[in-house]
Amino acid sequence: MSEADAVSDAEPGAALPEALAEIQRDFLDLGVKDRLQLLLEFSNELPELPQRYADHPDLLEQVVECQSPVFIFTEVEGGRVRLHATAPRESPTTRGFASIIAQGLDGLTVEEALAVPDDYPQTIGLVEAVSPLRIRGMTALLGRAKRQIRERAAAQ
After folding, report:
1. pLDDT classification of 58: cutoffs 50, 70, 90
2. Domains of the chain
């Protein structure tokens, strides 16, 4: 069974938002070593925090399951998700994970973001390339983002 088949078996009928589906395809189309290079590219694409969060890091929540310090904050504006994350440049794997989640969820509706399968990090082909502990960190990052989205949406 190919990885693509395993993904579709794990997610029968689940439709990913286009950004996450494209990220998934991009990783699965590569060999394991090239996936690490793509992860490095994602680490370089993590947007800087907006000034309002850079000036108030206390507003960000640390994802303690990650091996490196990763902090996130979600906003819900007009029913759309805005996700902000920060991770040190000297931690490219963790930074790449944060970038994937940020790029994949940012701009989605609340419903679309909450419908993302919790095991999405296991479906992009990095299980063979990085340690299970690191994948758990990415899974925790997605889980924290979704919890924050639920909380922000409920508060509106």
Report:
1. confident
2. 31-155 (3.90.1010.10)
